Amino acid sequence: MESTNTTSTERNGHNKTIVLEKELITDLETRERVSAPDVNLVQPSEEVKPELPESPKRKKPTALILAGLGVGAIAAGAYGYHWWQFASTHQETDDATVSGHVHQVSSRIAGTVSEVLVNDNEQVKRGQLLVKLDPRDYATKVRQAEASLQSAQRQANAAQANINLSAQTTTAKTNQAQGDMSGAVAAISTAQAAVKEAEAGIPAAQAEVQQAQAGIPAAQALVAQADANLQKTQVDYNRYNSLFNQGAVARQQLDTAKAAYDVVVAQKSGAIQGVAQAQARLAAANVGVAKAQSQLAQAQEGIVTAKAKLATSKGGMQQATAGEQQTVANRSQYEAAKAAITQAQASLQDAQLQLSYTSILAPATGRVGRKTVEVGNRVQVASPLLAIVNNEYWVVANFKETQLENMKPGEEVEIKLDSFPHHVFKGRVDSLSPGSGAQFALLPPDNATGNFTKIVQRIPVKVVFDLESIKGYESRITPGMSAIVSVKVK
Predict the structure, then answer these.
(1) What is the rounded CA–CA span in Å between residue 57 and residue 309?
(2) Domains, the chain, ranges and CATH?
């Protein structure tokens, strides 16, 4: 395309040169006809002289023609020089279009359009409400998510309360079980000491029984002896009494016999009391033995009771251990409840986000274009509704790769838009594309297929407008306009 443009430019210059030459020749011929005498104006009285050959006069038009051709050549040369000077310092192409940011506005959710708040070509600002979808379905989902969050929070609170209660109960049971175990162990020790003491007291009580049993025969022997002495002294006393009554003996002898008889009676009474005492000692010894045996039985029973209490305390300790496991389980439930809270919060945020999507806002400042949405439309996700064309424009000029030798970012550019042929816009080169247009095509060419024809490639060059030069045209320039771009290269 650029080769064609250059050829057409050269042809236009050549044609202009030919036109100038023709105009000069016509002008010279006109002047020659005006200056030549008209034969019709000769007076009749004047003698008509025979015409002589005017060979010198015929050379005059040829000289003028040559002069005109020289002037044309000079003009053509001047034009060619200026054209060459311009072409050597500028690179031009008409393969250029205006580009801009075109923001496609679509719906992020499915819904029914309830309001459309903008019209075609209307100027909007970033964040302005454009389209409103029916929010009732999504508001219901928000309420459901809020209820789920509240339920999860209650479950978490209950689980935390169970953790505290279980921990306190487990601690109390553990302390009680430990105290019971300590008491049971102490009771076992006490009962074992009592058993030993009772076992040690039984032999002593049995010895006392044996001693008491041994004292009874001795006491009984003393009774028998005292009884024999009593019989003898009674016989003596009776005999002396008879003799005294007969006056055979003196009163003193009777009194002596009576005293001996009383002594023996007292001895017999003492012996009988000794037997009773020995029997009492035997009974007491038997009671001591029974008491020692009872104490032994009680001590043994205390050991059994203490051991049972110890077993119960161990059971309480096991329950306390189970309570700790329950506390661990409650903590797991609490962690699960917290995870459920996090999930419910995420669901609520998602529901709120989906609800916010019912208000479709302008993604940028610009003008509305290609509006297809209307009230009542049922839109789906990513359905195109309208477009926002940003007020920032630039030109993409596709230069031939042979034109880029001296082109650099920052160089001055003249831009002519087909829509405004009488206004020249100013700009500068912003950047050069990292690849040719063919490389970014859907099917880029493969020169290694065997059939190769060298074709001059086009490289897109981004040209930005000078803000001062587009004042008053901001709302009139639109993406897609055709342009002619001339870059002043160094």
Answers:
(1) 159
(2) 2-107+368-488 (2.40.30.170), 139-354 (1.10.287.950)
